[in-house]
Specification:
The strands form two sheets. Strands 2, 4, 5, 6, 9, 10 and 11 form a seven-stranded mixed sheet that branches. Helix content is about 0%, strand content about 50%. Strand 7 and strand 8 form a beta hairpin. It is mainly β.
């Protein structure tokens, strides 16, 4: 079992930056693929980015390419989402998720463990 805790959310002006962290406890998740998803009010949960367990493969949604970067620190058992050039449409609750497997997927149904989420609000 893996417990995930997100942090780093907050209120930022458009054009600003935030770094989200996803810390794992319970056991190391160094062999799990990890993804970030977000959900805005009234909308479905959508894929943002994911990273393979070796960190060599990543996928990002078109809406965040060039602005968001996913990375992982094995020593800290943490995955990060660096978000730059934030837009009001990035406002959402951001969730990290891990899956039992090394392959990366964009579908949330492929993930087995979820954090509680962290709110990101971008003002115009």
């Amino acid at each position: 079992q893996v417990q995930l805790v997100e942090s780093g959310g907050g209120l930022v002006q458009a054009g600003g930056s935030l770094r989200l962290s996803c810390a794992a406890s319970g056991r190391t998740f160094s062999r799990n693929a990890v993804g970030w998803f977000r959900q805005a009010p009234g909308k479905d949960r959508e894929f943002v980015a994911c990273i393979s367990w070796l960190g060599g493969s990543t996928i990002s949604a078109d809406s965040v390419k060039g602005r968001f970067t996913i990375s992982r620190d094995y020593a800290k058992n943490t995955v990060y989402l660096e978000m730059n050039s934030l837009k009001p449409e990035d406002t959402a609750v951001y969730y990290c998720a891990a899956r039992e497997g090394t392959l990366i997927f964009s579908a949330p149904t492929r993930y087995d463990y979820w954090g509680q989420g962290t709110q990101v609000t971008v003002s115009s």
